[in-house]
Design brief:
The complex is a heterodimer.
Chain A (H helix, E strand, L loop, with lengths): L3 H7 L2 H8 L12 E7 L4 E10 L2 E10 L2 H14 L4 H15 L3 H4 L20 H19 L6
Antiparallel strand pairs in A: 1-2, 2-3
Helix pairs in contact in A: 2-3, 3-6, 4-6
Chain B lengths: L3 H13 L25 H5 L8 E2 L2 E2 L1 E2 L10 H14 L9 H20 L8 E4 L2 H16 L5 E5 L8 H10 L2 E5 L9 H9 L3 E7 L11 H10 L3 E5 L3 H4 L4 H4 L3 E5 L10 E5 L1 H5 L11 E4 L4 E3 L13 H17 L1 H19 L5 E4 L10 E6 L4 H10 L2 E2 L1 E3 L4 H7 L4 E5 L6 H17 L2
Helix pairs in contact in B: 1-13, 3-12, 4-12, 5-6, 7-8, 13-16, 14-16
Classes of the chains: A alpha+beta, B alpha/beta.
Protein backbone atom coordinates (compact mmCIF):
# COMPACT_ATOMS: atom_id res chain seq x y z
CA UNK A 1 0.00 0.00 0.00
CA UNK A 2 1.26 3.43 -0.88
CA UNK A 3 1.24 5.89 1.99
CA UNK A 4 1.73 9.61 2.15
CA UNK A 5 5.09 8.93 3.77
CA UNK A 6 6.15 6.94 0.73
CA UNK A 7 4.92 9.69 -1.55
CA UNK A 8 6.88 12.30 0.36
CA UNK A 9 9.97 10.13 0.18
CA UNK A 10 9.43 9.76 -3.55
CA UNK A 11 9.26 13.50 -4.04
CA UNK A 12 11.75 14.63 -1.42
CA UNK A 13 13.68 17.85 -1.63
CA UNK A 14 16.82 16.46 -3.24
CA UNK A 15 14.91 14.98 -6.19
CA UNK A 16 12.98 18.16 -6.87
CA UNK A 17 16.20 20.12 -6.56
CA UNK A 18 17.84 18.05 -9.32
CA UNK A 19 14.61 18.23 -11.37
CA UNK A 20 14.52 22.01 -11.24
CA UNK A 21 18.28 22.66 -11.31
CA UNK A 22 19.71 19.78 -13.31
CA UNK A 23 23.48 19.35 -13.14
CA UNK A 24 25.48 19.00 -16.35
CA UNK A 25 22.54 19.90 -18.54
CA UNK A 26 23.51 21.14 -21.96
CA UNK A 27 25.51 20.12 -24.96
CA UNK A 28 29.15 19.16 -25.54
CA UNK A 29 30.67 20.54 -28.73
CA UNK A 30 32.85 17.46 -29.00
CA UNK A 31 31.93 14.11 -27.59
CA UNK A 32 33.25 10.58 -27.86
CA UNK A 33 29.74 9.25 -27.42
CA UNK A 34 26.36 10.78 -28.17
CA UNK A 35 23.24 8.73 -27.54
CA UNK A 36 19.58 9.53 -27.69
CA UNK A 37 17.13 7.35 -25.82
CA UNK A 38 13.44 7.52 -25.19
CA UNK A 39 10.92 5.60 -23.26
CA UNK A 40 8.21 5.16 -25.89
CA UNK A 41 5.50 4.33 -23.39
CA UNK A 42 5.66 7.66 -21.61
CA UNK A 43 7.71 9.86 -23.91
CA UNK A 44 10.58 10.53 -21.48
CA UNK A 45 13.64 11.46 -23.48
CA UNK A 46 17.33 11.84 -22.88
CA UNK A 47 20.34 12.76 -24.98
CA UNK A 48 23.58 11.89 -23.22
CA UNK A 49 27.04 12.91 -24.37
CA UNK A 50 30.31 11.63 -22.93
CA UNK A 51 33.85 12.76 -23.43
CA UNK A 52 36.08 9.79 -22.59
CA UNK A 53 39.87 10.21 -22.32
CA UNK A 54 42.20 7.40 -21.27
CA UNK A 55 39.35 5.40 -19.81
CA UNK A 56 38.02 8.31 -17.77
CA UNK A 57 34.77 10.20 -18.34
CA UNK A 58 36.31 13.64 -18.47
CA UNK A 59 33.06 15.42 -19.29
CA UNK A 60 29.37 14.67 -19.56
CA UNK A 61 26.22 16.56 -20.57
CA UNK A 62 22.61 15.63 -20.93
CA UNK A 63 19.49 17.09 -22.41
CA UNK A 64 16.09 15.70 -21.75
CA UNK A 65 12.43 15.99 -21.22
CA UNK A 66 10.43 13.98 -18.77
CA UNK A 67 9.13 13.47 -15.28
CA UNK A 68 10.96 14.53 -12.12
CA UNK A 69 12.20 10.98 -11.54
CA UNK A 70 13.78 10.54 -14.98
CA UNK A 71 15.33 13.99 -15.07
CA UNK A 72 16.57 13.99 -11.48
CA UNK A 73 18.09 10.52 -11.89
CA UNK A 74 19.89 11.64 -15.04
CA UNK A 75 21.18 14.76 -13.32
CA UNK A 76 22.43 12.81 -10.27
CA UNK A 77 24.03 10.24 -12.52
CA UNK A 78 26.01 12.84 -14.46
CA UNK A 79 27.22 14.46 -11.25
CA UNK A 80 28.51 11.09 -10.08
CA UNK A 81 30.20 9.83 -13.24
CA UNK A 82 31.92 13.06 -14.25
CA UNK A 83 35.62 12.51 -13.72
CA UNK A 84 35.14 8.83 -12.93
CA UNK A 85 36.84 5.94 -14.71
CA UNK A 86 34.45 4.22 -17.09
CA UNK A 87 34.63 1.00 -15.04
CA UNK A 88 33.52 2.87 -11.90
CA UNK A 89 30.66 4.50 -13.79
CA UNK A 90 29.44 1.11 -14.92
CA UNK A 91 29.71 -0.13 -11.34
CA UNK A 92 27.47 2.74 -10.21
CA UNK A 93 25.01 1.87 -12.96
CA UNK A 94 24.82 -1.73 -11.88
CA UNK A 95 24.39 -0.90 -8.17
CA UNK A 96 21.74 1.70 -8.93
CA UNK A 97 19.87 -0.79 -11.11
CA UNK A 98 20.01 -3.29 -8.24
CA UNK A 99 18.62 -0.64 -5.89
CA UNK A 100 15.75 0.04 -8.29
CA UNK A 101 14.93 -3.65 -8.23
CA UNK A 102 14.66 -3.54 -4.47
CA UNK A 103 18.13 -4.78 -3.42
CA UNK A 104 18.49 -3.44 0.17
CA UNK A 105 22.28 -3.81 0.12
CA UNK A 106 22.55 -1.53 -2.91
CA UNK A 107 20.22 0.96 -1.24
CA UNK A 108 22.69 1.21 1.63
CA UNK A 109 25.65 1.89 -0.64
CA UNK A 110 26.94 5.34 0.28
CA UNK A 111 28.92 5.68 -2.92
CA UNK A 112 25.63 6.16 -4.75
CA UNK A 113 25.40 9.56 -2.99
CA UNK A 114 22.41 11.64 -4.16
CA UNK A 115 21.07 8.69 -6.12
CA UNK A 116 20.11 7.07 -2.81
CA UNK A 117 17.30 9.61 -2.61
CA UNK A 118 15.67 7.62 -5.39
CA UNK A 119 15.50 4.41 -3.32
CA UNK A 120 11.76 5.01 -2.83
CA UNK A 121 11.13 4.62 -6.55
CA UNK A 122 11.57 0.86 -6.12
CA UNK A 123 8.19 0.84 -4.38
CA UNK A 124 6.54 2.33 -7.52
CA UNK A 125 7.21 -0.36 -10.13
CA UNK A 126 5.76 1.61 -13.04
CA UNK A 127 8.23 4.41 -12.35
CA UNK A 128 11.43 2.31 -12.20
CA UNK A 129 11.91 2.66 -15.95
CA UNK A 130 11.91 6.45 -15.54
CA UNK A 131 14.77 6.28 -13.05
CA UNK A 132 16.78 3.90 -15.23
CA UNK A 133 16.52 5.86 -18.47
CA UNK A 134 19.68 7.89 -17.85
CA UNK A 135 21.64 4.78 -16.88
CA UNK A 136 20.46 2.91 -19.95
CA UNK A 137 21.80 5.83 -21.95
CA UNK A 138 25.06 5.72 -19.98
CA UNK A 139 25.62 2.06 -20.76
CA UNK A 140 24.90 2.66 -24.42
CA UNK A 141 27.23 5.66 -24.48
CA UNK A 142 30.05 3.70 -22.87
CA UNK A 143 29.68 1.04 -25.54
CA UNK A 144 29.76 3.70 -28.23
CA UNK A 145 32.84 5.36 -26.71
CA UNK A 146 34.64 2.01 -26.61
CA UNK A 147 34.27 1.75 -30.36
CA UNK A 148 33.16 -1.11 -32.57
CA UNK A 149 36.26 -3.29 -32.15
CA UNK A 150 35.87 -4.02 -28.47
CA UNK A 151 33.03 -6.43 -28.58
CA UNK A 152 34.06 -8.24 -25.41
CA UNK B 1 -30.91 10.45 -31.02
CA UNK B 2 -28.24 11.10 -33.54
CA UNK B 3 -29.36 14.59 -34.43
CA UNK B 4 -26.38 16.83 -33.72
CA UNK B 5 -28.54 19.92 -33.20
CA UNK B 6 -30.47 18.19 -30.54
CA UNK B 7 -27.35 17.07 -28.76
CA UNK B 8 -26.09 20.64 -28.61
CA UNK B 9 -29.34 21.82 -27.12
CA UNK B 10 -29.23 19.09 -24.51
CA UNK B 11 -25.65 19.77 -23.70
CA UNK B 12 -26.22 23.47 -23.12
CA UNK B 13 -29.07 22.62 -20.83
CA UNK B 14 -26.96 20.23 -18.90
CA UNK B 15 -24.25 22.70 -18.04
CA UNK B 16 -26.46 25.68 -17.38
CA UNK B 17 -28.94 23.87 -15.17
CA UNK B 18 -29.06 25.22 -11.60
CA UNK B 19 -27.77 21.91 -10.26
CA UNK B 20 -24.46 22.19 -12.09
CA UNK B 21 -23.86 25.58 -10.52
CA UNK B 22 -20.40 26.99 -10.98
CA UNK B 23 -19.95 27.44 -14.68
CA UNK B 24 -17.02 29.74 -15.20
CA UNK B 25 -18.27 31.26 -18.42
CA UNK B 26 -22.04 31.07 -18.24
CA UNK B 27 -23.89 31.14 -21.53
CA UNK B 28 -27.24 32.79 -22.04
CA UNK B 29 -30.05 30.44 -21.20
CA UNK B 30 -30.82 28.33 -24.24
CA UNK B 31 -34.27 27.68 -25.56
CA UNK B 32 -35.68 24.86 -23.44
CA UNK B 33 -35.33 21.61 -25.38
CA UNK B 34 -38.50 19.88 -26.51
CA UNK B 35 -37.42 16.54 -25.12
CA UNK B 36 -35.28 17.05 -22.02
CA UNK B 37 -32.99 14.26 -20.96
CA UNK B 38 -33.60 13.03 -17.45
CA UNK B 39 -30.45 12.97 -15.32
CA UNK B 40 -28.74 9.63 -14.87
CA UNK B 41 -29.36 7.61 -11.74
CA UNK B 42 -25.61 7.27 -11.24
CA UNK B 43 -25.78 5.51 -7.89
CA UNK B 44 -27.90 2.76 -9.43
CA UNK B 45 -25.67 2.50 -12.52
CA UNK B 46 -22.55 2.18 -10.39
CA UNK B 47 -23.92 -1.03 -8.90
CA UNK B 48 -23.61 -2.60 -12.36
CA UNK B 49 -19.83 -2.12 -12.42
CA UNK B 50 -18.01 -4.49 -10.03
CA UNK B 51 -14.55 -3.03 -10.69
CA UNK B 52 -15.57 0.37 -9.34
CA UNK B 53 -16.13 -1.02 -5.86
CA UNK B 54 -12.60 -1.50 -4.60
CA UNK B 55 -9.91 0.31 -2.69
CA UNK B 56 -6.69 1.37 -4.35
CA UNK B 57 -3.78 2.29 -2.10
CA UNK B 58 -6.14 2.51 0.84
CA UNK B 59 -8.67 4.80 -0.84
CA UNK B 60 -11.91 4.08 -2.68
CA UNK B 61 -11.06 3.89 -6.37
CA UNK B 62 -11.87 6.97 -8.45
CA UNK B 63 -11.62 5.76 -12.03
CA UNK B 64 -11.06 8.71 -14.37
CA UNK B 65 -9.27 6.96 -17.23
CA UNK B 66 -12.35 6.22 -19.31
CA UNK B 67 -11.01 7.66 -22.54
CA UNK B 68 -8.40 4.88 -22.39
CA UNK B 69 -10.90 2.16 -21.56
CA UNK B 70 -14.16 1.91 -19.68
CA UNK B 71 -15.13 -0.46 -16.90
CA UNK B 72 -17.56 -3.28 -17.73
CA UNK B 73 -21.06 -3.80 -16.34
CA UNK B 74 -22.24 -7.21 -15.14
CA UNK B 75 -24.62 -7.32 -18.12
CA UNK B 76 -21.58 -7.52 -20.44
CA UNK B 77 -19.65 -9.91 -18.21
CA UNK B 78 -22.70 -12.20 -17.97
CA UNK B 79 -23.20 -12.21 -21.73
CA UNK B 80 -19.61 -13.33 -22.34
CA UNK B 81 -19.72 -15.92 -19.59
CA UNK B 82 -23.12 -17.19 -20.73
CA UNK B 83 -21.87 -17.69 -24.26
CA UNK B 84 -18.81 -19.67 -23.16
CA UNK B 85 -20.78 -21.70 -20.63
CA UNK B 86 -23.71 -22.66 -22.83
CA UNK B 87 -23.20 -21.97 -26.54
CA UNK B 88 -19.48 -22.08 -27.28
CA UNK B 89 -18.81 -23.39 -30.81
CA UNK B 90 -17.32 -22.08 -34.01
CA UNK B 91 -19.67 -20.03 -36.13
CA UNK B 92 -21.06 -20.62 -39.64
CA UNK B 93 -21.18 -23.93 -41.51
CA UNK B 94 -21.47 -26.00 -38.33
CA UNK B 95 -24.38 -28.39 -38.63
CA UNK B 96 -24.71 -29.08 -34.92
CA UNK B 97 -26.81 -27.33 -32.33
CA UNK B 98 -24.09 -25.39 -30.49
CA UNK B 99 -22.72 -24.01 -33.75
CA UNK B 100 -26.22 -22.93 -34.71
CA UNK B 101 -26.63 -21.12 -31.40
CA UNK B 102 -23.18 -19.52 -31.58
CA UNK B 103 -23.86 -18.32 -35.13
CA UNK B 104 -27.21 -16.93 -34.11
CA UNK B 105 -25.70 -15.05 -31.16
CA UNK B 106 -22.82 -13.77 -33.28
CA UNK B 107 -24.99 -12.56 -36.17
CA UNK B 108 -27.59 -11.28 -33.71
CA UNK B 109 -24.84 -9.19 -32.14
CA UNK B 110 -24.11 -7.71 -35.56
CA UNK B 111 -27.74 -6.71 -35.95
CA UNK B 112 -27.79 -5.06 -32.53
CA UNK B 113 -24.66 -3.04 -33.27
CA UNK B 114 -26.12 -2.06 -36.66
CA UNK B 115 -29.19 -0.71 -34.87
CA UNK B 116 -26.96 1.19 -32.42
CA UNK B 117 -25.32 2.91 -35.42
CA UNK B 118 -28.63 3.68 -37.10
CA UNK B 119 -27.79 1.25 -39.90
CA UNK B 120 -30.43 -0.77 -41.79
CA UNK B 121 -28.17 -3.35 -43.36
CA UNK B 122 -26.17 -5.50 -40.90
CA UNK B 123 -23.93 -6.69 -43.75
CA UNK B 124 -22.33 -3.24 -43.68
CA UNK B 125 -21.12 -3.95 -40.15
CA UNK B 126 -17.71 -5.63 -40.13
CA UNK B 127 -16.21 -7.01 -36.93
CA UNK B 128 -12.64 -5.92 -36.28
CA UNK B 129 -10.25 -6.02 -33.34
CA UNK B 130 -10.96 -2.37 -32.70
CA UNK B 131 -10.84 1.11 -34.17
CA UNK B 132 -7.21 0.73 -35.18
CA UNK B 133 -7.90 -2.34 -37.29
CA UNK B 134 -10.96 -0.72 -38.87
CA UNK B 135 -8.94 2.29 -40.01
CA UNK B 136 -6.06 0.12 -41.20
CA UNK B 137 -8.55 -1.94 -43.19
CA UNK B 138 -9.90 1.09 -45.03
CA UNK B 139 -6.47 2.63 -45.52
CA UNK B 140 -4.97 -0.59 -46.91
CA UNK B 141 -7.95 -1.86 -48.90
CA UNK B 142 -9.75 1.26 -50.11
CA UNK B 143 -6.45 3.12 -50.29
CA UNK B 144 -4.66 0.58 -52.46
CA UNK B 145 -7.59 0.53 -54.91
CA UNK B 146 -8.24 4.25 -55.02
CA UNK B 147 -5.14 6.29 -54.23
CA UNK B 148 -2.29 7.33 -56.47
CA UNK B 149 0.26 10.10 -56.94
CA UNK B 150 -1.37 13.52 -56.74
CA UNK B 151 -4.21 12.34 -54.52
CA UNK B 152 -4.55 13.70 -51.01
CA UNK B 153 -5.86 12.39 -47.70
CA UNK B 154 -7.13 15.02 -45.28
CA UNK B 155 -6.32 14.52 -41.59
CA UNK B 156 -5.99 16.85 -38.62
CA UNK B 157 -3.36 17.54 -36.00
CA UNK B 158 -5.65 16.15 -33.30
CA UNK B 159 -5.81 12.63 -34.73
CA UNK B 160 -4.87 9.65 -32.61
CA UNK B 161 -1.87 7.81 -34.05
CA UNK B 162 -4.29 5.08 -35.13
CA UNK B 163 -5.89 7.56 -37.53
CA UNK B 164 -2.55 8.88 -38.74
CA UNK B 165 0.00 6.11 -39.12
CA UNK B 166 -2.20 3.85 -41.34
CA UNK B 167 -2.51 6.79 -43.75
CA UNK B 168 1.23 7.40 -43.68
CA UNK B 169 1.74 3.77 -44.65
CA UNK B 170 -0.69 3.81 -47.57
CA UNK B 171 0.50 7.25 -48.71
CA UNK B 172 4.03 5.89 -48.95
CA UNK B 173 2.84 2.89 -50.95
CA UNK B 174 0.62 4.80 -53.37
CA UNK B 175 2.37 8.15 -53.69
CA UNK B 176 -0.59 10.02 -52.22
CA UNK B 177 0.02 13.00 -49.95
CA UNK B 178 -1.29 13.82 -46.47
CA UNK B 179 -2.83 17.20 -45.66
CA UNK B 180 -3.51 18.41 -42.14
CA UNK B 181 -6.09 20.65 -40.53
CA UNK B 182 -4.57 22.84 -37.83
CA UNK B 183 -5.92 22.83 -34.30
CA UNK B 184 -6.79 26.22 -32.80
CA UNK B 185 -5.67 27.39 -29.36
CA UNK B 186 -9.16 26.41 -28.24
CA UNK B 187 -8.63 22.84 -29.42
CA UNK B 188 -11.01 23.05 -32.38
CA UNK B 189 -10.85 22.65 -36.15
CA UNK B 190 -11.64 25.49 -38.56
CA UNK B 191 -14.22 24.85 -41.28
CA UNK B 192 -12.67 27.60 -43.44
CA UNK B 193 -9.48 25.59 -43.58
CA UNK B 194 -11.44 22.51 -44.60
CA UNK B 195 -12.79 24.58 -47.51
CA UNK B 196 -9.34 25.87 -48.41
CA UNK B 197 -7.79 22.43 -48.62
CA UNK B 198 -10.76 20.89 -50.43
CA UNK B 199 -10.62 23.71 -52.98
CA UNK B 200 -7.39 22.18 -54.26
CA UNK B 201 -9.52 19.38 -55.71
CA UNK B 202 -7.09 16.62 -54.78
CA UNK B 203 -8.56 15.26 -51.56
CA UNK B 204 -10.01 11.80 -52.06
CA UNK B 205 -10.79 11.00 -48.46
CA UNK B 206 -10.91 12.83 -45.15
CA UNK B 207 -10.26 10.81 -41.99
CA UNK B 208 -11.18 12.71 -38.84
CA UNK B 209 -12.04 11.97 -35.27
CA UNK B 210 -15.53 12.62 -33.98
CA UNK B 211 -14.24 13.39 -30.49
CA UNK B 212 -10.63 14.22 -29.59
CA UNK B 213 -9.29 11.66 -27.13
CA UNK B 214 -6.76 14.15 -25.77
CA UNK B 215 -8.91 17.30 -25.57
CA UNK B 216 -12.49 16.07 -25.58
CA UNK B 217 -13.39 18.37 -28.49
CA UNK B 218 -16.65 17.43 -30.24
CA UNK B 219 -15.88 18.05 -33.89
CA UNK B 220 -18.52 19.39 -36.30
CA UNK B 221 -18.55 16.17 -38.30
CA UNK B 222 -21.82 16.86 -40.14
CA UNK B 223 -20.62 20.25 -41.41
CA UNK B 224 -17.32 18.75 -42.48
CA UNK B 225 -19.08 15.79 -44.14
CA UNK B 226 -21.19 18.12 -46.29
CA UNK B 227 -18.08 19.98 -47.46
CA UNK B 228 -16.13 16.78 -48.10
CA UNK B 229 -18.96 15.29 -50.12
CA UNK B 230 -19.48 18.48 -52.11
CA UNK B 231 -15.82 18.15 -53.08
CA UNK B 232 -16.44 14.60 -54.29
CA UNK B 233 -14.45 13.01 -51.49
CA UNK B 234 -15.28 10.46 -48.79
CA UNK B 235 -15.29 10.79 -45.02
CA UNK B 236 -14.01 8.23 -42.55
CA UNK B 237 -14.96 9.02 -38.97
CA UNK B 238 -12.79 7.74 -36.12
CA UNK B 239 -15.50 6.96 -33.59
CA UNK B 240 -13.32 5.47 -30.85
CA UNK B 241 -14.34 8.21 -28.45
CA UNK B 242 -17.48 9.34 -30.26
CA UNK B 243 -19.43 6.08 -30.08
CA UNK B 244 -18.71 5.79 -26.37
CA UNK B 245 -19.55 9.32 -25.35
CA UNK B 246 -22.06 10.78 -27.82
CA UNK B 247 -25.14 9.56 -29.69
CA UNK B 248 -24.22 8.02 -33.03
CA UNK B 249 -26.20 7.83 -36.24
CA UNK B 250 -23.74 7.29 -39.06
CA UNK B 251 -26.15 8.63 -41.69
CA UNK B 252 -26.96 11.76 -39.69
CA UNK B 253 -23.22 12.28 -39.19
CA UNK B 254 -22.64 12.00 -42.92
CA UNK B 255 -19.96 9.32 -42.56
CA UNK B 256 -18.94 6.98 -45.36
CA UNK B 257 -16.88 4.83 -42.98
CA UNK B 258 -17.15 4.72 -39.20
CA UNK B 259 -14.70 2.79 -37.02
CA UNK B 260 -15.00 2.24 -33.28
CA UNK B 261 -14.09 -0.11 -30.43
CA UNK B 262 -16.04 -2.15 -27.92
CA UNK B 263 -13.84 -1.61 -24.90
CA UNK B 264 -14.34 2.13 -24.69
CA UNK B 265 -18.12 1.75 -24.46
CA UNK B 266 -18.42 -0.80 -21.66
CA UNK B 267 -17.61 -3.77 -23.91
CA UNK B 268 -14.63 -6.13 -23.95
CA UNK B 269 -11.21 -5.44 -25.48
CA UNK B 270 -10.22 -6.99 -28.80
CA UNK B 271 -13.48 -6.32 -30.59
CA UNK B 272 -14.63 -3.38 -32.68
CA UNK B 273 -16.62 -2.49 -35.73
CA UNK B 274 -15.99 -0.93 -39.08
CA UNK B 275 -19.14 0.32 -40.73
CA UNK B 276 -18.99 1.33 -44.38
CA UNK B 277 -21.49 2.09 -47.11
CA UNK B 278 -22.25 -1.13 -48.99
CA UNK B 279 -21.24 0.10 -52.44
CA UNK B 280 -17.89 1.25 -51.08
CA UNK B 281 -17.19 -1.99 -49.22
CA UNK B 282 -18.24 -4.11 -52.19
CA UNK B 283 -15.76 -2.33 -54.43
CA UNK B 284 -12.87 -2.89 -52.00
CA UNK B 285 -10.40 -5.79 -52.22
CA UNK B 286 -10.12 -8.10 -49.18
CA UNK B 287 -7.82 -6.99 -46.39
CA UNK B 288 -6.80 -10.39 -45.06
CA UNK B 289 -7.16 -13.80 -46.63
CA UNK B 290 -8.19 -17.02 -44.94
CA UNK B 291 -11.20 -19.01 -43.89
CA UNK B 292 -14.62 -17.39 -43.58
CA UNK B 293 -13.90 -14.80 -46.29
CA UNK B 294 -13.94 -17.07 -49.34
CA UNK B 295 -16.56 -18.53 -51.61
CA UNK B 296 -14.72 -20.89 -53.98
CA UNK B 297 -11.03 -21.69 -53.54
CA UNK B 298 -8.76 -23.02 -56.28
CA UNK B 299 -5.00 -23.37 -56.49
CA UNK B 300 -4.32 -20.03 -58.10
CA UNK B 301 -7.32 -17.97 -57.20
CA UNK B 302 -10.39 -17.74 -55.06
CA UNK B 303 -13.62 -15.84 -55.03
CA UNK B 304 -14.80 -13.88 -52.03
CA UNK B 305 -17.68 -14.43 -49.71
CA UNK B 306 -20.25 -11.64 -49.75
CA UNK B 307 -20.29 -8.81 -47.19
CA UNK B 308 -19.60 -8.69 -44.34
CA UNK B 309 -17.55 -11.89 -44.50
CA UNK B 310 -15.25 -10.56 -47.25
CA UNK B 311 -13.43 -8.69 -44.49
CA UNK B 312 -13.65 -11.26 -41.72
CA UNK B 313 -10.95 -13.86 -42.38
CA UNK B 314 -10.43 -16.49 -39.71
CA UNK B 315 -12.41 -17.53 -36.67
CA UNK B 316 -13.82 -14.29 -35.33
CA UNK B 317 -13.92 -12.96 -31.77
CA UNK B 318 -17.34 -14.46 -31.12
CA UNK B 319 -17.47 -13.79 -27.40
CA UNK B 320 -16.21 -10.27 -28.03
CA UNK B 321 -18.99 -9.58 -30.52
CA UNK B 322 -21.58 -10.88 -28.06
CA UNK B 323 -20.06 -8.78 -25.29
CA UNK B 324 -19.99 -5.68 -27.47
CA UNK B 325 -23.64 -6.14 -28.39
CA UNK B 326 -24.50 -6.43 -24.69
CA UNK B 327 -22.56 -3.20 -24.15
CA UNK B 328 -24.44 -1.22 -26.82
CA UNK B 329 -27.71 -2.60 -25.45
CA UNK B 330 -26.65 -1.33 -22.04
CA UNK B 331 -25.79 2.13 -23.41
CA UNK B 332 -29.07 2.33 -25.31
CA UNK B 333 -30.88 1.43 -22.12
CA UNK B 334 -29.14 4.27 -20.29
CA UNK B 335 -29.44 6.68 -23.22
CA UNK B 336 -26.43 8.05 -25.13
CA UNK B 337 -27.74 11.63 -25.04
CA UNK B 338 -28.16 11.43 -21.26
CA UNK B 339 -24.62 10.00 -20.94
CA UNK B 340 -23.14 12.91 -22.90
CA UNK B 341 -25.15 15.43 -20.87
CA UNK B 342 -23.93 13.80 -17.64
CA UNK B 343 -20.31 13.90 -18.82
CA UNK B 344 -20.64 17.55 -19.81
CA UNK B 345 -22.08 18.43 -16.46
CA UNK B 346 -19.05 16.76 -14.80
CA UNK B 347 -16.70 18.60 -17.16
CA UNK B 348 -18.30 21.93 -16.33
CA UNK B 349 -18.06 21.14 -12.62
CA UNK B 350 -14.41 20.07 -12.97
CA UNK B 351 -13.35 23.02 -15.15
CA UNK B 352 -14.84 25.51 -12.69
CA UNK B 353 -12.79 24.06 -9.84
CA UNK B 354 -9.61 23.45 -11.82
CA UNK B 355 -9.55 27.06 -13.05
CA UNK B 356 -9.18 28.11 -9.41
CA UNK B 357 -5.97 26.08 -8.95
CA UNK B 358 -2.84 28.26 -9.17
CA UNK B 359 -0.51 27.05 -11.91
CA UNK B 360 -3.16 25.14 -13.83
CA UNK B 361 -3.02 25.05 -17.62
CA UNK B 362 -6.14 23.65 -19.27
CA UNK B 363 -6.35 22.33 -22.82
CA UNK B 364 -9.35 22.08 -25.09
CA UNK B 365 -12.57 24.06 -25.58
CA UNK B 366 -13.61 26.43 -22.79
CA UNK B 367 -17.25 25.44 -22.89
CA UNK B 368 -18.18 22.05 -21.51
CA UNK B 369 -20.90 21.86 -24.19
CA UNK B 370 -18.16 21.69 -26.84
CA UNK B 371 -16.59 18.62 -25.24
CA UNK B 372 -17.19 15.06 -24.27
CA UNK B 373 -16.02 14.03 -20.80
CA UNK B 374 -12.31 14.78 -21.14
CA UNK B 375 -10.20 17.31 -19.24
CA UNK B 376 -6.50 17.63 -20.15
CA UNK B 377 -4.27 19.78 -18.00
CA UNK B 378 -0.85 20.62 -16.60
CA UNK B 379 -0.17 21.80 -13.07
CA UNK B 380 2.84 23.99 -12.31
CA UNK B 381 6.11 22.29 -13.15
CA UNK B 382 4.89 18.88 -12.03
CA UNK B 383 5.32 16.47 -14.90
CA UNK B 384 2.08 14.61 -15.79
CA UNK B 385 3.68 11.30 -14.79
CA UNK B 386 4.41 12.69 -11.36
CA UNK B 387 0.84 14.00 -11.13
CA UNK B 388 -0.47 10.57 -12.05
CA UNK B 389 1.70 8.79 -9.47
CA UNK B 390 0.60 11.17 -6.72
CA UNK B 391 -3.08 10.79 -7.68
CA UNK B 392 -2.74 7.02 -7.83
CA UNK B 393 -1.40 7.01 -4.28
CA UNK B 394 -4.76 8.53 -3.32
CA UNK B 395 -6.78 6.06 -5.39
CA UNK B 396 -7.43 8.42 -8.31
CA UNK B 397 -6.71 6.86 -11.72
CA UNK B 398 -5.98 9.29 -14.54
CA UNK B 399 -3.75 9.05 -17.61
CA UNK B 400 -0.55 10.97 -18.23
CA UNK B 401 1.41 11.11 -21.45
CA UNK B 402 0.99 12.07 -25.07
CA UNK B 403 -2.26 10.11 -25.39
CA UNK B 404 -1.07 8.76 -28.76
CA UNK B 405 -1.43 12.28 -30.15
CA UNK B 406 2.13 13.48 -30.61
CA UNK B 407 1.12 15.97 -33.32
CA UNK B 408 -1.24 17.63 -30.86
CA UNK B 409 1.35 17.71 -28.07
CA UNK B 410 3.78 19.39 -30.49
CA UNK B 411 1.06 21.85 -31.46
CA UNK B 412 0.81 22.97 -27.83
CA UNK B 413 4.54 22.77 -27.20
CA UNK B 414 4.24 20.17 -24.45
CA UNK B 415 5.60 16.64 -24.14
CA UNK B 416 2.60 15.31 -22.28
CA UNK B 417 -0.55 16.26 -20.39
CA UNK B 418 -2.47 14.81 -17.49
CA UNK B 419 -5.95 13.72 -18.54
CA UNK B 420 -9.03 12.96 -16.47
CA UNK B 421 -11.87 11.42 -18.45
CA UNK B 422 -15.39 10.77 -17.21
CA UNK B 423 -18.11 8.28 -17.98
CA UNK B 424 -21.67 7.53 -17.04
CA UNK B 425 -20.71 6.16 -13.60
CA UNK B 426 -18.58 9.08 -12.41
CA UNK B 427 -19.83 11.52 -9.79
CA UNK B 428 -19.19 15.04 -8.56
CA UNK B 429 -17.71 13.58 -5.39
CA UNK B 430 -15.11 11.91 -7.58
CA UNK B 431 -14.32 15.23 -9.25
CA UNK B 432 -13.84 16.64 -5.76
CA UNK B 433 -11.44 13.81 -4.97
CA UNK B 434 -9.48 14.65 -8.14
CA UNK B 435 -9.21 18.30 -7.17
CA UNK B 436 -8.21 17.42 -3.59
CA UNK B 437 -5.45 15.14 -4.85
CA UNK B 438 -4.21 17.90 -7.13
CA UNK B 439 -3.77 19.97 -3.97
CA UNK B 440 -1.40 17.22 -2.77
CA UNK B 441 0.54 17.62 -6.02
CA UNK B 442 0.81 21.34 -5.37
CA UNK B 443 2.03 20.72 -1.83
CA UNK B 444 4.69 18.20 -2.89
CA UNK B 445 5.86 20.32 -5.80
CA UNK B 446 5.61 23.63 -3.93
Amino acid sequence: MTTDVQLSSLYQHLILDHYRKPRNKGELQEATADVHMRNPTCGDEIRLQLQVEDGVISDVRFQGEGCSISQAAASMMTALVKGAPVADALGIASRFTAMMHGDPEAAGDRTLKDLRALAGVARFPVRVKCALLGFDALQEAVKQAAGPDTGT
Amino acid sequence: MGNPDRVDALASTAISSPASGQVANPRPDPVPPLDPVPPLDVERLRKDFPALHQEVNGHPLVYLDNAATSQKPVQVLDAIRGYYEADNANVHRGIHELSRRATEAYEGARQRVARFLGVEDPAEVIWTRGTTEGINLVAASWGSANLGPGDEILLSDMEHHSNLVPWQLIARRTGAALRFLDVTDQGTLRLEQVDEILAGGRVRLAALTQVSNALGTLNPIREIADRVHAAGALLLVDGAQGAAHAPVDVHALGADFYAFSGHKLCGPTGIGVLWGRRELLEAMPPYMGGGEMISLVERDMSTWAPLPHTFEAGTPNIAGAIGMAAAVDYLEGVGPAAILAHEQSLVAYALAQLRELPGIRLFGPEEASDRAGVVSFLLGDAHPHDISTILDAEGVAIRAGHHCTQLLMRRYGVAATARASFYLYNTREEVDRLVRSLETVRTLFA
